[in-house]
Amino acid sequence: MKAKTVLILLSAVILCLTGCTESQKPTTVVDNSFAVTTSSSADSESGNDKYYDSTPISHAYLSGNTANLDDKQLEIYNKAVSAIEKLITLDMNDYEKELAVHDYIVGCASYDEAHLNALGIGLPNSDNPYGCLINGKAICSGYSTTFQLFMDMLEIPCKTIYATDFEGDDHSWNIVQIGGSWYYVDVCWDDPIPDFTDRPVRHKYFNVSKEYMKTKHVWDDTELPDTDSTKFSYITQTVTHINSVNEIESLMEKALDNMQDSVAVTSDMSDFQFSETDQIDTNFNERNIKGLSKVFDSFCEKHTDYDVYCQRVQNGNDIVLVIYMRKFE
User: Fold this and answer.
1) CA 15 to chain centre
2) Domains of the chain, with CATH numbers?
3) Mean pLDDT computed over 98-117
4) Which residues form a coiled coil (predicted)?
5) pLDDT per position as a tens digit, 275-290
6) In whole angstroms, what is the distance from residue 194 CA to residue 191 CA?
7) Which of 156, 158, 220, 221 is buried most deeply by CB count within 10 Å?
């Protein structure tokens, strides 16, 4: 790949956003996009290395000069470059590149469950790309910083958010710009526990709207760009318009063949004319759609290690039925 030269801008880009309520922890946004440094003046003065800075690695890739990388950074660099060479082709658009990276990270790492024990002590580096790419173990910040690293290397604008989930636990995810619009991504939550071989990749939190993300994530978005488009949401890119419920099973089979765990469908049939959406992540009774229970039963008879459920999801102005195929050991 031809080396590129970038300008390193030394600026304070960690934004500790204000306006949080007492029940909401402060939100921190780390912006490395296009090799901008991630150290704020406050962190520099205190020597706080809480937020992993991947810019030396992305800058080395874009400049073609690895001389300033330490041993660990060089390991990360080599692993990431190898992945890009295998995953990315010249004819890909930014959405396709982003999707390939998302699926790669989910496939190469599993959640470091040791962090969930009483002491909360897991493997070292699980909060950064070394743990994710080299050790194959990560916590939420390990997933988000690895995603950030790849986006920077591919020159796709991206920010990393440190805030909380809906239960108040510390959490981290990303916001990425594709085709001029911004979308939220949570790679960690697309790699659920337990992890096991041959499980289809989840895309439940890939390129979703602020409204969708807000149902399970808590952060102050005052200084963040709005999500004003669904053009490059995963649902928009994969949804299928059907004329018969009987088409759904073949779509489910095709999804499994492609290592995907969901199918999104719309239809002009009366059963699909939903007047309102269910709350996100609330299951929708398949018996409300004539013939859908038989489709699910037929699928599960063939795939005894799967169960199936569905939800109504709002995607822009459309209400889409999303069917999830959940594999268990």
Assistant:
1) 21
2) 15-218 (3.10.620), 239-327 (no CATH)
3) 89
4) none
5) 665 666 677 888 889 9
6) 9
7) 158
